[in-house]
Amino acid sequence: MSETLDPAVDVPCSQPEPGTDQGSTVARAAGAGWWWLNLRPLVMRLHFYVGMFVGPFILVAAITGLLYTITPQLDELLYSDALHAPVGTQRLDLREQVVAAAAAVPDGTVTQIRPPVADDGTTRVTFEAPGVAEDFGRTAFVDPYTGQVKAVLDTYGEWLPVRAWIDALHRNLHLGDVGRIYSELAASWLWVLALSGMAMWVVRRRKRNRMRRTLLPEGSTRGRARIRSWHGSVGLWAAIGMVGLSVTGLTWSQFAGPNVGDLRTALDWTTPSVGQELPSTTAIATVDAAAVGAAADTVLAAARAAGMTDPVAISPASEPGAAWEVAQVKRSWPLKQDAMAIDPTTGAVLDTVRWQDWPLMAQAAEVGISAHMGILFGIGNQLLLVVLALGIICVVSWGYRMWWLRRPTAAGRTAPGGTQRPGAEAIVIVGLVAVLLGLFFPVLGASLVLFLIADCLVQQLRRRTTVDEPVAR
Fold this sequence. Notes:
The chain has helices at residues 22-30, 40-68, 71-78, 80-83, 94-104, 161-172, 176-206, 211-215, 223-250, 256-266, 289-305, 360-372, 379-405, 424-440, 442-466, and strands spanning 4-6, 11-13, 109-114, 123-128, 137-142, 149-155, 312-315, 324-328, 339-342, 349-353. It is of the alpha+beta class. A four-stranded antiparallel beta sheet has the order 3-4-5-6. A four-stranded antiparallel beta sheet has the order 7-8-9-10, with helices on one face. A two-stranded antiparallel sheet has the order 1-2. A hairpin with a 6-residue loop joins strand 5 and strand 6 (149-155). The N and C termini lie close together (9 Å).
């Protein structure tokens, strides 16, 4: 049996003959602790083959996420006229602004009012209106000094059209529920690939006392070893961010998302909300635009008198007998997320929920989601996401390049994991983990079970076809 030198680790590496246990011996010697079940071949093939098949989904998510990070600048570039107005001497009451907005959207019902924060900002009045896509609203941007409607745009929450379009591209590729499976597959496997790759990389380097080369790429190697060095070290640095993106991304997913919500409810980690029941003797304001605007002035004044600072969103009652809500909407650090339920006729504050009173995990979820969207630390958050997205794109691309250089059809090459066979205990344990994961993360669990079945079949077929053949060199 011939022997070659692996430049990535500077030690001889041999291809074991099929039917021998040399592969298991080498594996245990390479990383004694976690190889005791001969788990390494399975983890290696899991990392490589799942990476190969899920890689396109992760790549698309990274590219669309990279595009999403620049949307605040795109908004300013494309919608500057809607977002800004010349600074005047005195702002109009919200009543006058809502009346002007209602004239521009005559068939709409007001669902939210956002007074401007900056002196040159416009007031946003959002309506539920016919012809608007599901979950979208029609928003009029009003000059707070003159009452002129600067623009009317269909918005998704606070996102303007371009940002909403890119957001949907990132979430579901504009394919609806079918497209959401793509993003859930990417989010489900991103943390698995990150942690499995990190484990293999750190154990491999630690056993050879090369921690410096663990953290930094090697410049002295060539070929596949050099690519692997960059893939491993960059992946190691990006692993924490990848896990964070995966965890927060799953909260929006189609199948795992509801499970996450149920878990948060069971553990009392949900975002608290204000009670909106009005006293039975309180009259309900009419739906006339002027009356709505006047009520908005009342509840805003009451909220500010109670200590609530900008930026805020005012939400009229969605049904009779309910209070209006005034909520802070600042999601950059430090967050402002206080909320108040206010009687629109009397201005009485009926209930208050302060940000500092949220459960710790609810606060953590809000912070994590804001960081995922690139709005927690402003431009710094955006730059961090840009670097992370580029890192993921590079790591996936290097992974494909390594696979190509070691593809099974290349002369003298074997598949990742070689001819080593994982122990039966390893397969059983990973199978049980897949079933348990499937209860909470259905897409991840189902795809992991399919991988285990396919891997067992392929390894069985390989043993049958190579048991009596000499090893190709």
